[in-house]
Amino acid sequence: xxxxxxxxxxxxxxxxxxxxxxxxxxxxxxxxxxxxxxxxxxxxxxxxxxxxxxxxxxxxxxxxxxxxxxxxxxxxxxxxxxxxxxxxxxxxxxxxxxxxxxxxxxxxxxxxxxxxxxxxxxxxxxxxxxxxxxxxxxxxxxxxxxxxxxxxxxxxxxxxxxxxxxxxxxxxxxxxxxxxxxxxxxxxxxxxxxxxxxxxxxxxxxxxxxxxxxxxxxxxxxxxxxxxxxxxxxxxxxxxxxxxxxxxxxxxxxxxxxx
Amino acid sequence: xxxxxxxxxxxxxxxxxxxxxxxxxxxxxxxxxxxxxxxxxxxxxxxxxxxxxxxxxxxxxxxxxxxxxxxxxxxxxxxxxxxxxxxxxxxxxxxxxxxxxxxxxxxxxxxxxxxxxxxxxxxxxxxxxxxxxxxxxxxxxxxxxxxxxxxxxxxxxxxxxxxxxxxxxxxxxxxxxxxxxxxxxxxxxxxxxxxxxxxxxxxxxxxxxxxxxxxxxxxxxxxxxxxxxxxxxxxxxxxxxxxxxxxxxxxxxxxxxxx
Amino acid sequence: xxxxxxxxxxxxxxxxxxxxxxxxxxxxxxxxxxxxxxxxxxxxxxxxxxxxxxxxxxxxxxxxxxxxxxxxxxxxxxxxxxxxxxxxxxxxxxxxxxxxxxxxxxxxxxxxxxxxxxxxxxxxxxxxxxxxxxxxxxxxxxxxxxxxxxxxxxxxxxxxxxxxxxxxxxxxxxxxxxxxxxxxxxxxxxxxxxxxxxxxxxxxxxxxxxxxxxxxxxxxxxxxxxxxxxxxxxxxxxxxxxxxxxxxxxxxxxxxxxxxxxxxxxxxxxxxxxxxxxxxxxxxxxxxxxxxxxxxxxxxxxxxxxxx
Amino acid sequence: xxxxxxxxxxxxxxxxxxxxxxxxxxxxxxxxxxxxxxxxxxxxxxxxxxxxxxxxxxxxxxxxxxxxxxxxxxxxxxxxxxxxxxxxxxxxxxxxxxxxxxxxxxxxxxxxxxxxxxxxxxxxxxxxxxxxxxxxxxxxxxxxxxxxxxxxxxxxxxxxxxxxxxxxxxxxxxxxxxxxxxxxxxxxxxxxxxxxxxxxxxxxxxxxxxxxxxxxxxxxxxxxxxxxxxxxxxxxxxxxxxxxxxxxxxxxxxxxxxxxxxxxxxxxxxxxxxxxxxxxxxxxxxxxxxxxxxxxxxxxxxxxxxxx
Lengths: 259, 259, 308, 308
Ligand SMILES: Cc1cc2nc3c(=O)[nH]c(=O)nc-3n(C[C@H](O)[C@H](O)[C@H](O)COP(=O)(O)OP(=O)(O)OC[C@H]3O[C@@H](n4cnc5c(N)ncnc54)[C@H](O)[C@@H]3O)c2cc1C
Ligand SMILES: Cc1cc2nc3c(=O)[nH]c(=O)nc-3n(C[C@H](O)[C@H](O)[C@H](O)COP(=O)(O)OP(=O)(O)OC[C@H]3O[C@@H](n4cnc5c(N)ncnc54)[C@H](O)[C@@H]3O)c2cc1C
Ligand SMILES: Cc1cc2nc3c(=O)[nH]c(=O)nc-3n(C[C@H](O)[C@H](O)[C@H](O)COP(=O)(O)O)c2cc1C
Ligand SMILES: Cc1cc2nc3c(=O)[nH]c(=O)nc-3n(C[C@H](O)[C@H](O)[C@H](O)COP(=O)(O)O)c2cc1C
Ligand code: FES
Ligand code: FES
Description:
The complex is a heterotetramer, with two copies of chain A and two copies of chain C. By secondary structure, chain A is an alpha/beta fold.
């Protein structure tokens, strides 16, 4: 079910320079939203920042009926979001899209997040708890490590400038995780070059992988076809899929990251 | 001198249904603004409600370095203004335009205001004090009567629905004021039909009159020529004047209210 | 409100109200059908169809601009046959009046689609003339009166269903184009399609869209659309469906006053899925409050004499 | 920042920076001169002049639209002679490069103005072709390539000063028009002028403007302007001054990347009197931050190959 709702902002705080965590009250959406889905948020007046902005569900606070999103201020839409004070309502469409495939039968899974791509993995850490290893990469200052660390069985951090954890790319940490024990699935979200690298490593190790893609959106629900990304169908034929409904999460054999 | 300034809103309260009084802190503008001048106010983002909105100075609170404006919510610009909270800054250009001609030698003057046209007369009441009679007309509930009554020598109110003062038009009250004693000048602001009637009455009584006109504006400073109103020049030849710099206040022999 | 009549007649089609959804912005009706009962709409125009399936343009396909958006979808669609098989039956079950939007690079393509659709359950066909005419070096069909007239005439003879010709705004004189479509036998006109535009990303120093150019829609184009609808309504004798930037009932009323017999809502759906319904309600309220009993009373009811 | 070069050369005119103010939005420079020293601008284009004084259109002359404004000033101006006597000397004293914008209903009118201006202190003449040509039934000069070429050619021979031809966007193919102006001898091009539009007041059921139609400017038109500037820069060999909806330095950089040698700021002045200065500073900062040493390095420096 997809909803359009004016939701109360319960919290909106800067957790890192230019990165905000917003808690949104919506009992209905909170009860149905799944890891990897996104919210399509109106950022300002009807006619100004015209289009809604897609922001992933980061995690749910089921007891508080709230959804948590974590976003970076990029342009006018996210700037607007960052200026909204708790107590104000925002217009949210959601939950949208095909989230991560979750299977409680899995023995062990790995989450690989880079930069803002860490955000949607937080809910997965809650779902898998001890069974998951989270590898989180940042340019410099980490965020969401406390939230994810509290849930995941294992947490490793990489920073490009070495300010915390491994100095270098998060993908440096992945091969070892895949070699040391049997991994049923890798969940990945981050910049394109990182995702390509993850895909390569997973293929080398024969481990399946799911990736969450980004594309600019219009409707957010599959009607306008502006959010296409290059994919392969079941027969391996190339074509376009809609990130908003066929994704944002895709299987390793569906995506064509060079396309 | 014309300024563009980000001014602190000190107060913004609804004094009547849909009518707001806003106090704006600006020592510089406060010291130079004159009765009948206006402020050109940015109402929202650069690209949304694109143009500034002209709002008259209602009165100055010299001791507090603040300018007071009184405005009615009409469309998106004034709606935006009404939503701004004290503590926020707004972008104000001003003081602009040719205000009322004030002459301390005058023995007695009459102010005639209708509806929102009452607003710019408040500063005149402060300037003339005891020497002025204020005739204020409203459809129903009056506003600014306390502020103007406290300054003016005499105050008469008319309401169309009779809810306060004379039942009928404010122009009904004017002939008597002009007959009973020598009036040096009538200052008038209000809807066009009212101003036409005031002009007629003044002509009949041989009393000079100044009127404050409204026209939609672009630049507010004389550069774009979109705010034209039909006027006569010194030789009586018809032409256009710019409400923003040649007005908004015009003399009785300049205006062509039917044009 | 009960006795306000919202029915309009477009080229023999009786619409229960004058609010239509614009081609390419409403898919095949399924997506917005998850939000409300789409049979409440006057009609829906389905996404642009071509004779054969089309993949469309490479991404990115969208950019936002002040009060507008640019798209370069490039007519991604499953082709007319699969539309007729997979999409139309379910749509007709919903009880909504369906208008098919057709696109081709040759007049023959258009005619073959018209023939197929003529034997189907669609209520009318909208001929989109913004497509490049390959026989004329890729110049859009819709920019030259002669091509408009010729294309309309041929397609008109290829089927019986009401034929709505959709005009491109990227022209010198929209009236000349509208008259050409009327002369060719159009039963109604639809305008405007998107304005040809581009956007540039100053960080990457590249066009924002992979296709470089795209079509501008949304509130930004409304004044252009309103002018064109007003001019065309004053010149032709056939009904006009007005669109371009309509986002609320006030915008819709402007188009009706300008002379449009119906309005189409496009980009606004993306912002507010309920926009078309809110527009229907708003028109009804406007009629009640201004004392008109039928929407037909306000169509073209604009006064242009001077004075207040 | 000191060693970034902002100088550009437009048809022999050396401008200290590429930021100009657009005709009709900056009066004769006096009004904005109260806010800052206008000699800091690359140049100013004064308000549209005609041979004889003109009263302009009746009010209301302005309406606001989403991210845009409509004006129908109708070329109110004191005439070219009074401009030369009353306005130009004071303006030249300020030390600013002045471009005169000329408007006529016949080619003869344009030529007579060119002759007068050629003997004056203006640096260049901008030929506005959006005016109705009375000999051609009132159709604007700027919409037919033949008329554009003919008008440019005649005016070109009437004087020596650099001749900038300003193009109307209300055409089918801007490139065809631009090439016609180049063929006629234009030294530079200026685009875009306003889009022909209208607005309707649903309360009064009248057009908002007394003149019914007006010209749209402001951010809403930027994507149209950018596309036209890009297309024209790719086709002509003469410099282009880009304008239409530029409100900050980012917009200005987009036009430079699209190929414009200079940009003009119009409507943005009304919103922010300091807009042109902030744009000059912003361009300078952009150059510094991206490591370019001259504004000429970014002009047309856009990559259109695919890939990220
Ligand atoms: C499925 C999905 C989930 C996302 N989740 C998150 C998240 O959890 N946290 C987060 O910080 N960001 C997330 N993003 C990216 C986020 O949508 C953009 O940062 C945001 O739209 C930028 O808007 P803006 O107005 O600030 O920037 P502007 O540059 O002003 O935006 C202009 C236009 O481009 C679009 N746009 C710009 N960047 C992107 C982008 N990267 N992806 C999609 N559209 C873009 C905007 O939506 C808007 O339509 C997600 C994107 C997608 C597609
Ligand atoms: C010199 C002058 C002084 C004024 N003083 C006051 C005052 O003290 N108090 C007050 O309540 N109002 C005053 N007005 C009217 C006020 O400017 C309008 O009510 C306001 O601009 C409406 O803006 P909006 O966005 O709410 O309405 P919208 O209808 O959304 O505005 C659309 C556009 O039309 C313009 N517009 C609409 N109505 C008017 C109008 N009556 N006059 C000028 N432009 C208009 C707006 O500025 C805007 O550009 C004054 C007008 C002028 C010209
Ligand atoms: C994403 C998108 C896709 C579109 N696809 C088509 C199409 O296939 N056929 C067509 O005739 N018009 C198409 N249009 C144009 C719309 O039908 C409409 O004419 C235009 O968007 C103006 O209306 P609006 O401003 O309300 O969106 C499309 C518009 C958008 C935004
Ligand atoms: C109020 C106003 C008056 C204008 N007058 C003229 C004019 O006299 N001559 C001319 O060539 N362009 C005129 N223009 C067009 C501008 O010079 C410019 O081409 C157009 O407004 C687009 O730029 P902008 O969006 O930055 O305003 C005028 C524009 C406005 C808004
Ligand atoms: S955003 Fe419209 S189809 Fe994906
Ligand atoms: S508003 Fe620009 S001249 Fe008056």
